[in-house]
């Protein structure tokens, strides 16, 4: 029965109002339900006393609130990161991470169970692809983090969402965009354009579609190498969407939207972390509105590489800044001790 119930987190506010209209219920009740879901963060119909009995009965018969039970969780030793393995209705599981950076709380959410893109150093890629997530399953991860903050009586509310967990978001375009519409709603979690970041491996048609649709979000593109051959060795789908096509799509995106792109670069010792590599990425991004995010490799079982030392990362960063005026950050390796690389909790057994 529960499998065919409607997941309420799949509905935008307008869609919820339309559903209530079809059922002959007042839009006032639809608005109340929305507030319960996204302001009160309610996880049961019993916690919705302001809804009339007949509305609650129908909801409990035909719908569900897609809460995601925690299968496993782990804190990083510095206490800044908490990682959850959340169970979906069909028994699959995805990772969601609560991260705290200077008082701001960010939820890192998954877009698929596994991933079809096969990047060699990525634990999720090593797992392969199982299925797409629904919009509601993406929204429910953010709600889970917001609820966890409230339960812990933390002073901060959920401020940012990054689609950087398991999966390739542009491979699940429609569900991801639907979820973003729900997350952005000002009468709900109110995560506006600057607060949502989508990271893609470089799905060219998806980037062009984002540009065409002028989607209000921050875009991050996983580059990792500045030559076609170097990139194809790390990111197999670079064969399908070659580097020159990817860079052309990024240029179109920035020109059409006026937005800068974040370029991600997983730093692997001896592979892509030399001074020449830094100069190659500087040349590649010349003239583009860009920021580079350097991510020291999180070691995974399926890949023999090791992370770049922080001294080498600093030199890399210095070359980008001094020779190319290219801003960059080195991602803190928070949570590495809880196997925080994406997909690593899921395969921890
Ligand atoms: N599929 C999307 C988003 C999820 S991965 C993408 O690939 O962009 C988010 C980022 O983490 C990507 O830049 C990815 O390359 C990086 N990443 C994945 N596994 C990693 C690992 N083991 N160490 C460091 N970075 C990793
Ligand atoms: Fe998929 Fe991103 Fe991992 Fe590549 S890095 S396998 S695209 S999740």
Q: Within the CATH hierarchy, at the fold level, what is the topology of the largest domain?
A: TIM Barrel
The total count of helices amounts to 11
Low-confidence stretches: 336-340
Query: Average pLDDT across residues?
Result: 93
The total of beta strands comes to 14
Q: What would the principal axes of the Cα set say about the shape?
A: elongated
What is the CATH class of the largest domain?
Alpha Beta
The overall number of domains is 2
What small molecules accompany the polymer chains? S-adenosyl-L-homocysteine, iron/sulfur cluster
Structural class: alpha/beta
Which architecture of the largest domain does the CATH hierarchy give at level 2?
Answer: Alpha-Beta Barrel
Compressed to H and E, one letter per element, the order equals EHHHEEEEEEHEHEHEHEHHEHEHE
CA distance, first residue to last residue: 30 Å
Strand order of the largest sheet: 3-4-5-6-9-10-11-12-13-14
CATH superfamily of the largest domain: Aldolase class I
Using only CA atoms, what is the Rg? 21 Å
Helix content range = 25-40%
Q: How large a portion of the residues is in β-strands, by DSSP E?
A: 15-25%
Main sheet record: 10 strands, mixed
Report a brief summary of the structure.
This protein is α/β, with parallel strands linked by helices. It has helices at 13-23, 27-38, 53-62, 123-127, 135-151, 173-184, 204-212, 228-234, 243-257, 275-284, 310-324; strands spanning 6-7, 63-64, 70-75, 81-87, 93-101, 104-108, 112-114, 129-132, 158-163, 196-200, 218-222, 261-267, 290-296, 328-330.
């Amino acid at each position: 029965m529960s499998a065919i119930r409607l997941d309420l987190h799949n509905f935008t506010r307008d869609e919820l109002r339309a559903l209530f209209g079809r059922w002959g219920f007042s839009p006032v009740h639809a608005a109340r339900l929305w507030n319960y879901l996204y302001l009160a963060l309610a996880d049961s119909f019993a916690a919705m006393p302001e809804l009339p009995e007949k509305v609650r009965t129908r909801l409990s018969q035909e719908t569900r609130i897609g809460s995601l039970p925690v299968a496993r969780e782990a804190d990083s030793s510095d206490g800044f990161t908490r990682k959850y393995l959340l169970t979906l209705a069909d028994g699959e599981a995805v990772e969601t991470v609560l991260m705290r950076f200077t008082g701001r709380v960010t939820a890192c959410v998954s877009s698929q169970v596994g991933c079809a893109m096969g990047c060699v150093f990525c634990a999720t890629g090593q797992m392969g692809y199982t299925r797409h997530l629904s919009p509601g399953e993406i929204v429910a991860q953010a709600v889970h983090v917001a609820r966890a903050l409230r339960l812990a009586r933390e002073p901060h509310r959920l401020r940012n969402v990054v689609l950087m967990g398991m999966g390739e978001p542009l491979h699940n375009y429609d569900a991801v965009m639907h979820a973003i519409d729900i997350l952005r709603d000002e009468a709900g979690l109110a995560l506006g354009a600057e607060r949502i970041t989508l990271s893609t491996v470089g799905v060219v048609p998806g980037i062009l579609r984002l540009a065409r649709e002028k989607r209000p979000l921050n875009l991050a593109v996983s580059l990792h190498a500045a030559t076609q051959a170097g990139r194809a060795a790390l990111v197999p789908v670079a064969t399908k969407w070659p580097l020159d096509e990817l860079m052309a799509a990024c240029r179109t995106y920035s020109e059409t939207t006026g937005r800068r792109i974040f370029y991600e670069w997983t730093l692997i010792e001896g592979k892509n972390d030399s001074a020449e590599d830094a100069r190659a990425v500087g040349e590649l991004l010349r003239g583009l509105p860009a920021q580079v995010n350097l991510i020291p490799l999180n070691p995974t079982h399926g890949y023999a590489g090791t992370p770049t030392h922080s001294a080498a990362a600093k030199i890399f960063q210095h070359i980008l800044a001094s020779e190319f005026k290219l801003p960059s950050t080195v991602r803190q390796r928070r949570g590495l001790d809880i196997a925080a690389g994406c997909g690593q909790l899921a395969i921890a057994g």
